[in-house]
């Protein structure tokens, strides 16, 4: 029996996923969290075989939550189930360590198949994500600017975009302010932007934050 943690700020979504998962004899919902902070605490205290994670939540968003979950439990498989299409987030999140990415518009059978796949220690690549990965290999110059960032740069970018200060980021990531400033410089340079406000505008424009 695989133990699954559901992380979504909407009770109706959690209930729907619970009902779907518990129809399967080999899967069990062993925990629910309505926020990133709650999810991280549950993972510290319990053992799960997989996490189903929403990307858009108040407080810690899904990107931050993913990174912190993997810091607490590096081998924990995470399936991102998002209201955003694959072309907005999927490639960056796969680079950041999630094992699968699906739109919430996916059918029930695919969601269950994805959960089983990551619980077994494999990556789940949807048809849409496979096409994105193929296009990236065939046309690397057509990447969006945020897709050119390294996983750590993308993590810092998302924190800057939601208004966190370099001091707060350095404390949270246990890095020096100088290191965070270097990351910020590289991010602005790679994305041809000039300020944190530009980063926020870009993230909103491309649906990376609300």
UniProtKB/TrEMBL annotation:
Residue positions where 4-aspartylphosphate is found in the record: 54
Q: Does the keyword tRNA processing apply?
A: no
Name of protein: Response regulator
Annotated transmembrane regions: none
Q: Which PROSITE patterns does the record cross-reference, listed alphabetically? A: HTH_LUXR_2 (PS50043), RESPONSE_REGULATORY (PS50110)
Q: Which InterPro entries match?
A: CheY-like_superfamily, NreC/VraR/RcsB-like_REC, Sig_transdc_resp-reg_C-effctor, Sig_transdc_resp-reg_receiver, Tscrpt_reg_LuxR_C, WalR-like
**Any one Pfam family match given in the protein's UniProt record, by short name:** Response_reg
Domain HTH luxR-type, by residue range, is: 142-207
Cite the Response regulatory domain residue spans from the record. Answer: 3-119
* Keywords from the named record: DNA-binding, Phosphoprotein
Query: What SMART domains has UniProt attached to this entry?
Result: HTH_LUXR (SM00421), REC (SM00448)
């Amino acid at each position: 029996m695989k133990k699954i943690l559901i992380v979504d700020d909407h009770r109706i979504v959690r209930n729907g996923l619970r009902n779907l998962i518990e129809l399967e004899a080999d899967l069990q919902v062993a925990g629910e969290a309505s926020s990133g902070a709650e999810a991280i605490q549950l993972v510290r205290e319990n053992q799960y075989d997989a996490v189903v994670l929403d990307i858009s939540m108040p407080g810690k968003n899904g990107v931050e939550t993913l990174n912190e979950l993997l810091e607490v439990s590096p081998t924990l498989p995470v399936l991102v189930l998002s209201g955003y299409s694959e072309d907005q987030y999927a490639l960056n999140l796969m680079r950041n360590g999630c094992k699968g990415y699906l739109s919430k518009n996916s059918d029930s059978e695919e969601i269950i198949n994805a959960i089983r796949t990551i619980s077994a220690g494999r990556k789940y690549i949807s048809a849409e994500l496979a096409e994105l990965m193929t296009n990236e290999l065939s046309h690397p110059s057509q990447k969006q600017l945020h897709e050119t960032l390294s996983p750590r740069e993308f993590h810092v970018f998302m924190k800057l975009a939601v208004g966190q200060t370099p001091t707060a980021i350095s404390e949270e990531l246990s890095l020096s302010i100088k290191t965070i400033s270097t990351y910020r410089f590289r991010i602005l340079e790679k994305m041809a932007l000039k300020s944190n406000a530009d980063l926020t505008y870009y993230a909103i424009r491309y649906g990376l934050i609300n």
